[in-house]
Amino acid sequence: MLRKFKANHANLSNFAAVKLTIVKMKRLVFLLLAILVMLPIRAQIRGNSIVVTVEPDHQDWNYRVGETARFTVEVRRSGTLVSDVIIDYAAGPEMYQDTKKTVTLKDGTLKLTGKMTSPGFYRVDVMAHVDGKDYRGACAAAFSPEKLQPSTIMPSDFADFWQQSIVEARKTDLDPTKRLLPERCTKDVNVYEISFHNEQWGSRTYGILCVPVKEGRYPALLRVPGAGVRPYEGDVYTASQGVITLEIGIHGVPVTMKQGVYDNLNNGALRGYWEYNMDSREKHYYHHVIMGCIRAMDYIEQYTPWDGKNAGVTGSSQGGFLTLATAGLDKRITCYAPVHAALCDHTNSLRGIACGWPHYFYWNKGKGQEKQIEVSRYYDGVNFARLITNSQKGWFSFGYCDDVVPPTTAWATYNTVTGPKEISPYQATWHFWFQEQWDEWENWLLKELKD
User: Fold this and answer.
1) Which tens digit of pLDDT belongs to each residue from 26-61?
2) Which of 73, 141, 148, 204 is a Cys-bridge partner for 412, taking CB atoms 3.0 to 4.6 Å apart?
3) Quick count: other Cβ atoms within 10 Å of Cβ 30?
4) What is the DSSP string of 44-78?
5) Pairing mode, if any, of strands 244-248 and 204-212?
């Protein structure tokens, strides 16, 4: 009897323990579900209740020189106008606005006008102050932008200097490396980290190569980077559509390290790298960068199943400049797509007109920088654009509100190109992309590469 009681007691204890475990597991599951439910809610925070708009009276934001542009400024909270809101606004030629005022909008609206007597962009910037916070809006109206012309002078030996640089760089063997990244591969695309020498022994360019798995010969796309220091993922999507893609870094370091490594470089050894050796044609930071782009095409030609016919290059901001440089110097490129291209028309600021990032001579109007001004002409996207031929087709896109790469320089660079070209401005963008812009860019490249 006692033995049976002990057995029953043990069974009851086990049952209680199991029941307690089940309760704990249920609580844990509920807790995990609660966390999972909360995470998407946090991730979905977007935009502001307060919105500042500056709207021109022409839908395409374009005017003829001498016309008057009329702007409507509105400050809204949850879609309704805010009363008695204080704003600061600046208006005038972009980067050189000559009207600056602080006003109170009784009904949340303000009407402004502006005009230009020569081709360019008239920009209105508004900062609204609501409940201790600042909210920004802007609009830049184009006045006869198709007539804009750059200021930069093309040195007489520009093409010779760069072709000789390429000849010298090719004296160094590519000596390529290639490492499969299985975690990034798909059933359709193999992904590798690769590297090769660019302009001299020991100076390497690293990148992510994506190659369609299916046997065959393919068109190729070189993707060149915007400014900064970062890792790269590679363009797997375009490769899945039947295009070899090579996305390169420019700083001579592997492109698959942890983000913290790049942050340290960006804040240390590579801080402000775009200003390194500005007084030397041969030692300028972008010299080895541009050579890296040309050697990347050498790599594609020699070490990938490229079809030998169709090749493209594309990038945004700094990458837009490198797109122009690569297309201008390398006639293997058949199509190119610069998006809000930086480093164009550096000397425009010397005549009081908006210049391209990094605005080398904007702050002091080039005083004491005669040598840097001379060298800058060898690193100006406009001069590379002048080398683009009729056998190369271009697609240009940028935003009218961009305050990093002024549309003045983007339009002038576009106007410089004599070969076949298309332009697709997305007026309301700043220094970023709209989804529609991204889709149009991707579709244009695929069409040109696969035709």
Assistant:
1) 444 444 444 344 444 445 778 889 999 999 999 999
2) 148
3) 10
4) T--S-SEEEEEEESSTT-EE-TT--EEEEEEEEET
5) antiparallel
